[in-house]
Amino acid sequence: MQTELLPVTPEAIARGGELIRGGQLVAFPTETVYGLGANALDGEAVKRIFEAKGRPGDNPLIAHISAIGQLAPLIAVEPSPAARALMAACWPGPMTLIFPKSDIVPREVTAGLDTVAVRFPAHPAARALIDAAGVPIAAPSANRSGRPSPTTARHVLEDMAGRVPLILDGGDCAVGLESTVIDMTGDTPRVLRPGGITPRRIEEICGGVAVDDAVMRPLKEGEVARSPGMKYRHYAPAGALTIVQGEEARVIEAIRRLYDAALDEGKRPLILALESHIPGYGPRMALSLGADAAGMAHAVFARLRDADDLGADVLFSEAVPADGLGLAVMNRLGRAAGFHIVEV
Ligand code: AMP
Ligand code: MG
After folding, report:
1. Which atom of ligand 1 is nearest to the CA of 96?
2. Contact status, residue 177 vs residue 320, Cβ threshold 8 Å
3. Ramachandran class of 157: left when φ > 0, alpha when ψ lies in -120 to 50, beta otherwise
């Protein structure tokens, strides 16, 4: 299959809409990461997403809409007051809500679950594509399964060349991490995957929030994941990643030692560090994660891909405090590291 890479123009959006209506796949930018979309009401089209990604069949997708009015047909309940408050405050935006699904949502989208995840993205190209298709678009991140999520069209091309007919190039993604996934089927909104909309913000909006405790640890043997995506070793670079956490000066000191020891063993180590700490690593190979948690959210997936391009076989990353946006950053870094976190 030939893969076309087109900048976002009205013509390219129209072409994307046609492809989606015809049961084909289109990769497109959103404010979180690039998505790989298909007609959410067509189970056969949705199967192509799983094939192109090499995604396990039990990992459900998010249905993307371009107007609040498109939610009702997809779900089997009236949204609760809390859900309505969240939608009013955070849609369009980087927030996904889970509801009991209606019959029109095929089982391929929800991986057999009786709930469906829905998001109304803010990115104008994503909204225009959904409008052009005239149907909700089911889309996970546009990476090959297990690879870091793509935050540029080039990342998508690396993973999907020859596997999809069209990639829409809308430049860099503003947030850089996937949406906050919130389960709305219980009494209290429960964060299953942290993201750009933080638990504190959710609490401000609807008065209560729970954060699933699987967010910052690996699943236990035999444990059923509430968010099926959480059971996979996600976002992983090829090299073995260790996160080093603790007081600033001690972290830098520890990472210098770990790096030098790896070099002595003939390995190709690489450091991921906050911008202001890079000089502290002297001549060692270190990539910047940005200035703070927001910078890290934006940069982390791209740097994990860079680590692969540089052939690094061991990686040492600094941590950020796991609150606010830092919770989302540490959730992704933690998963990339198989939760191999060293305290110093
Ligand atoms: P991705 O954005 O590529 O990570 O894919 C969507 C993620 O949304 C999956 O990994 C799931 O964990 C989550 N998700 C989608 N649908 C549901 C659902 N019905 N219940 C719980 N989590 C879901
Ligand atoms: Mg993904």
Report:
1. 8
2. no
3. alpha
What tokens were used for 339?
Answer: 């939760």
> Helix, strand, coil proportions of the chain in percent (round to 5)?
40, 20, 40
pLDDT at residue 214, rounded to an integer: 84
The yes-or-no verdict on residue 220 having pLDDT over 90 is no
Residues 121-151 as b or e (16 or more Cβ within 10 Å = b): bbbebbbbbbebbebbbbbbbbbebebbbbb
Q: Closest-lying ligand to the alpha carbon of 232? A: 1
DSSP label of 131: H
Question: How far lies 49's CA from each of 163, 170, 232, in Å?
Answer: 10, 20, 17
Distance from residue 130's CA to the centre of ligand 2 (Å): 20
pLDDT over 70 (residue 262): yes
Residue with tokens 């049961």: 23
pLDDT value at 88 more than 90:
yes
Q: Spell out the SS3 assignment of 72-104.
A: HHHECCCCCHHHHHHHHHHCCCCEEEEEEECCC
- What spacing in Å lies between the alpha carbon of 149 and ligand 2's midpoint? 6
* Confidence label for 230 from pLDDT (cuts 50, 70 and 90): low
What's the pLDDT score for residue 280?
Answer: 97
Specify the pLDDT at position 146.
86
Interatomic CA distance for residues 272 and 263, integer angstroms? 16
Q: What is the pLDDT of residue 149?
A: 94
Mean pLDDT of 136-152: 95
Q: Which domains does the chain have, with CATH numbers?
A: 4-216 (3.90.870.10), 240-343 (3.40.50.11030)
Nearest-angstrom CA–CA distance, 323 and 134: 39
Closest residue by Cα to residue 94 from 208, 237, 202, 213: 202
Mean pLDDT value across the chain: 95
Mean pLDDT of 305-325: 95
Backbone φ and ψ for 107, nearest 5 degrees, come out as -65, -20
8 Å CB contact between 215 and 327 = yes
pTM of the full structure: 0.95
Cα of 261 to ligand 1 centre, how many Å? 39
- Residue pair 129/28 in contact by the 8 Å Cβ criterion: yes
